[in-house]
């Protein structure tokens, strides 16, 4: 067998443990000879990696210096890149995920040595500790961070793209039924924040959107509310008004008259609170505020909801399920999915349709019944055939008469 290597293979040899190792010579840099090493389970795998590295070096896309470790790069990504594209709360969550999960397992691996099989093994190990949804979030963070590393030419490719995250079983939403919703609204009728729960149930606004709603964005004459900000608690910064979740979340929501009336009453009561608070009033301009004008903390809002549910004896659901309740009831009343999508501020109609599949069966049955009314019943030929099939034959009639006579 010839020991000559094929073009582009670089130096490839087998190790004592049966794996293969290859090296690409990157020339001199900073007075030192630089090489890049690759290790794999098979010679074919290493040969392919060597050829990719050689091509990247030829095109000037491969840096001769050492690649940073994943942990070092993630810290840089979270400091320099992520804050410009995601909210502070998301960056905070990213840091927690790196500290608790990614860092201990993969943080010391250099970017250019991170392999798909390592990432896949990491996912499988994490599935024994956290949910599939949490692992998918780790996957999304790694994919984004490594995509930037490729653009910055810190590494030749993104190995995360070669790994599939664990599948996520569809979460069946559990909204309130029409009767349960009536009980909830009856329980809050006339209360100080009746309008808050009416907005949640009838308009499907998110908690942050409701608590961040400003009076200047409410038109009580036209009966609309403009969503342009949300209230969010940020660790270290307290309560902050931030842009809506997505671009489509910026929207104008139509308000039923009962919600408009509740908002008018709230406006009067808030004016009374302003006078009573005097110099202690902090004017945030928000629809829902404390007795001194400051925002309602989302934690307190959630606590109030649970107290109402407990008092009425309703089943416990997540506060976000009020948004699902609004969507489900709208769809059940025949409101087109496209309209529901606009009211909720979904970015795609597929989100609306996929989330509320539990409503589709009833809507499908209703659609079939409406087609029946529109186009009429069965044709005369089909009707005659069905009648003939149902009618007893002459022999059956004769037999029945004979038995009747015998009795």
From TrEMBL:
One of its GO terms (biological process) is DNA integration. PANTHER family: INTA PROTEIN, PHAGE INTEGRASE-RELATED. Residues 68-150 form the Core-binding (CB) domain. Keywords: DNA integration, DNA recombination, DNA-binding. It comes from Microlunatus phosphovorus (strain ATCC 700054 / DSM 10555 / JCM 9379 / NBRC 101784 / NCIMB 13414 / VKM Ac-1990 / NM-1). Residues 171-369 form the Tyr recombinase domain. The lineage of its organism: Bacteria, Bacillati, Actinomycetota, Actinomycetes, Propionibacteriales. This is Putative integrase. It comes from the Bacteria. The keyword Plastid does not apply. One of its GO terms (molecular function) is DNA binding.
């Amino acid at each position: 067998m010839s020991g000559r290597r094929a073009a582009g293979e670089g130096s490839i040899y087998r190790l004592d443990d049966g794996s293969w190792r290859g090296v690409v010579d990157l020339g001199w840099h900073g007075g030192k000879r630089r090489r890049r090493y690759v290790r794999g389970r098979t010679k074919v795998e290493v040969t392919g990696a060597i050829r990719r590295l050689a091509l990247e070096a030829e095109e000037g896309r491969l840096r001769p210096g050492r690649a940073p470790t994943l942990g070092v790069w993630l810290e840089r990504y979270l400091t320099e890149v992520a804050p410009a594209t995601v909210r502070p709360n998301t960056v905070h969550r990213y840091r927690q995920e790196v500290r608790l999960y990614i860092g201990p397992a993969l943080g010391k691996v250099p970017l250019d040595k991170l392999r798909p099989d390592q990432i896949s093994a990491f996912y499988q190990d994490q599935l024994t500790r956290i949910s599939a949804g949490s692992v998918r979030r780790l996957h999304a963070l790694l994919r984004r961070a490594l995509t930037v590393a490729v653009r910055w030419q810190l590494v030749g490719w993104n190995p995360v793209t070669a790994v599939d995250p664990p599948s996520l079983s569809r979460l069946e939403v559990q909204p309130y039924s029409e009767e349960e919703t009536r009980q909830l609204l009856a329980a809050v009728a006339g209360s100080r924040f009746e309008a808050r729960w009416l907005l949640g149930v009838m308009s499907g606004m998110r908690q942050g959107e409701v608590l961040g709603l400003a009076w200047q964005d409410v038109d009580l004459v036209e009966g609309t509310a403009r969503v342009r900000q949300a209230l969010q608690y940020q660790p270290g910064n307290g309560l902050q008004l931030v842009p809506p979740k997505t671009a489509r979340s910026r929207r104008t929501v139509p308000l039923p008259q009962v919600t408009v009336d509740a908002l008018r009453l709230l406006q009067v009561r808030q004016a009374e609170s302003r006078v009573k608070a005097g110099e202690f009033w902090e004017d945030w301009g928000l629809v829902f505020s404390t007795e001194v004008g400051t925002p309602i903390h989302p934690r307190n809002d959630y606590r109030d909801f649970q107290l109402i549910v407990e008092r009425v004896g309703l089943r416990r659901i997540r506060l976000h399920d009020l948004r699902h309740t609004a969507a489900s009831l709208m769809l059940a009343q025949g409101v087109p999915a496209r309209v529901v999508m606009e009211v909720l501020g979904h970015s795609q109609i597929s989100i609306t349709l996929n989330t509320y599949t539990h409503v589709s069966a009833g809507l499908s049955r209703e659609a079939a019944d409406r087609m029946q009314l529109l186009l009429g019943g069965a044709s005369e030929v089909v009707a005659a055939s069905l009648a003939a099939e149902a009618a007893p034959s002459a022999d059956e009639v004769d037999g029945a008469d004979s038995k009747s006579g015998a009795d």
